[in-house]
Amino acid sequence: MRMPQTPVRIIGAGIGGLTLGRCLLKYGIPAVLYERKPSSPRHDYGITLYASSYLPLLDILGMDEFTFRRRIAVDGFLGGSGNIEPGSFATPRRVNSTSFRAHRGKFEKLLCEGLDIQWGNSLEKVEEAPSGMILHMQNGQKLESTCIIGADGPHSNTRKSLSPDTSFNVLPFVAFNGKRRVERDLYDSLYAPAFKGSNVIEKKQGDMFLNISIDEQQTDAVSISWIFSRPARRFNDPLHRPNRSVSEAADIPKDFFDEIETLHGLDQPFKDVFDAEKLRLERALHWLMRTVLELCTLANKGVFFIGDSVHAEPILGGEGANNAIVDGMELAKCISEFGQGGITTWYDSRYPAWKDGIGKSEQAIALMHRQ
């Protein structure tokens, strides 16, 4: 087995970076992760995991499926396993009895175990050096490396530093997301009858798509997320702002609440969640449905990318978490078998699947909003 002389340096401790780090640890290959955010709190929301991505990970984690699901499921605290009922979706989805709703923060905490992670240490830039690349970190560190993995998401500083002209493809859809804490009595009386044991429910009203999902169930309350989305209108849509900056994601225009007030005839719990007066008092985010696909042009210099940093799919209809798991597992296996020199071939083999995935995610989001 060929091993790098220096640790694999992974930028980003999200699902992809953590999966890669955990797999490299299993293979005995040293790695260090650098994450700009502090270790907590992190990602307090639910994600859907598919068996095709999480089952191969169980051997790396040394866990059986029952234990794995119970530990990270959004209802695991109450003895659940993250059940999702396919019938709870408004449109056909790639979900079956082996898919489940996981709490992202708990999943990442599990992946963190045993890893060397430098929290609160962000990347400023990457530059070429005679013998590899140099990472310039925010804390003043200068780290030379022959193997750097950018796993820092769609807004990857690693990618921006090396390929600043890469642009997003913003899809013509409007999407808003928010969170709410629902007291247990209200959840049991108003929400639970509609969820029917599932952790996700959806509804269509014309071309509008409404989603309510469980983020975490506790004894006294249930944390939920909601999504409102629709196609962008053809002319002067005040809710479609494809050029908004990252910092403007929390700027919610009055037009959004006006549009929520036009939703009539909603049954519970959609009527309670999509109440304009309640939403005005909560923090919401304006999501952009973006894709990006780029081949690594600096592979020969030892800089690579995985997950959303190289093939981002839209939040709705995409499979970002599952793709990140697969990328992390497969890249670690490649490094363990062929060393750094095999990664370029791995990229070439994965590119068609990444391209196909983006195409399917764009089809899925269009289907969600079809009248």
TrEMBL record:
Superkingdom, taxonomy of origin = Eukaryota
Q: Look up the coiled coil feature and give its residue ranges.
A: none
Keywords noted in UniProt: FAD, Flavoprotein, Monooxygenase, Oxidoreductase
Q: Tell me the ranges covered by the FAD-binding domain, including all copies.
A: 114-341
One Pfam family in the UniProt entry:
FAD_binding_3
The GO molecular function terms of this record are: FAD binding; monooxygenase activity
PANTHER family the UniProt entry points to: FAD-DEPENDENT MONOOXYGENASE APTC, MONOOXYGENASE, FAD-BINDING
Q: By what name is this protein known?
A: FAD-binding domain-containing protein
